[in-house]
Amino acid sequence: MTEPTWHKSTYSGNNDNCVEVADNAPSLVRVRDTKDHTQGELTATPAAWAAFTAFARTYPV
Questions:
Q1: What is the pTM of this model?
Q2: What is the 3-state secondary structure (H, E, C) of the chain?
Q3: Is the distance from CB of 22 to CB of 34 less than 8 angstroms?
Q4: Confidence of residue 13 (pLDDT cuts 50, 70, 90)
Q5: pLDDT for the residue numbered 8
Q6: What is the C-alpha R_g of the chain?
Q7: What is the pLDDT of residue 2?
Q8: What is d(CA 51, CA 56) in angstroms, rounded to the nearest whole number?
Q9: Calpha distance 41→37 (Å, rounded)
Q10: How far apart are CA 38 and CA 53, in angstroms?
């Protein structure tokens, strides 16, 4: 199994109050807290992650 390649959200700027996503596995998207990696990961299928991010983009801030 390949180690995940984590990417921090570009919306987080220079702070660590965000999430990191690893999407280099074809059947799995992994999400974790930027500041506390010991809390584990949330996993989703690519289709579920795409649906979530599409919804999140429509949510008013």
A1: 0.73
A2: CCCCCEEECHHHCCCCCCEEEEEEECCEEEEEECCCHHHCCEEECHHHHHHHHHHHHHCCC
A3: no
A4: low
A5: 84
A6: 12
A7: 72
A8: 9
A9: 8
A10: 24
Sign (positive/negative) of CA torsion 42, 47, 53, 55?
negative
User: Which token pair is 18?
Assistant: 């965000």
Q: Name the residue among 19, 14, 22 with its Cα closest to residue 43.
A: 22
Handedness of CA 47, 18, 31, 11 (dihedral sign): positive
Q: Which two tokens stand for residue 60?
A: 């008013």
Amino acid identity at 3: E
Q: Tens of pLDDT along 15-48?
A: 667 888 897 778 899 999 888 889 999 999 999 9
